[in-house]
Design the sequence.
């Protein structure tokens, strides 16, 4: 099947967000330094430390989406270690004008960079990056939940 990554007009996208969950794929990047967190520059969770993620495109496999997220948001080629599971996020904010909230169903992969010494190069969705070995109270509830549920880092 052809992958459909076309632009969705704002009003149509907002209707989707207002009426149904959005399927997303997230990558938890694990290295010898710890787990990579990126500081979000856009809603939802603007200013929070999280991991990269994106909506799933029609026709795109979950694994293809994981590789795309790492390439587009971090400029990294990755190996997928395992699927950590499926999570659900309820956001009170959204980056889509006219959609005040967002409900996402997140398929989460634990990944490792193919080239561990390659520098992270963030896209404009993120303003900073850091490696952590534990989730402190200063991190978003969802980040702390992932660390606990999946015994991160590993």
Sequence:
């Amino acid at each position: 099947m052809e992958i459909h990554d076309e632009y969705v007009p704002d009003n149509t996208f907002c209707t989707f967000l207002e009426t149904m969950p959005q399927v997303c794929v997230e990558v938890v990047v694990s290295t010898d330094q710890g787990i990579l967190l990126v500081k979000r520059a856009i809603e939802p969770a603007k200013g929070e430390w999280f991991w990269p993620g994106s909506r799933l495109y029609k026709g795109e496999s979950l694994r293809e989406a994981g590789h795309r997220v790492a390439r587009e948001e971090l400029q990294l080629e990755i190996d997928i270690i395992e699927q950590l599971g499926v999570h659900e996020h309820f956001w009170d904010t959204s980056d889509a004008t006219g959609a005040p909230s967002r409900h996402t169903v997140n398929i989460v992969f634990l990944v490792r960079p193919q080239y561990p010494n390659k520098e992270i190069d963030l896209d404009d969705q993120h303003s900073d990056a850091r490696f952590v070995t534990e989730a402190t109270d200063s991190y978003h509830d969802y980040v702390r939940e992932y660390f606990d549920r999946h015994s991160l880092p590993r």
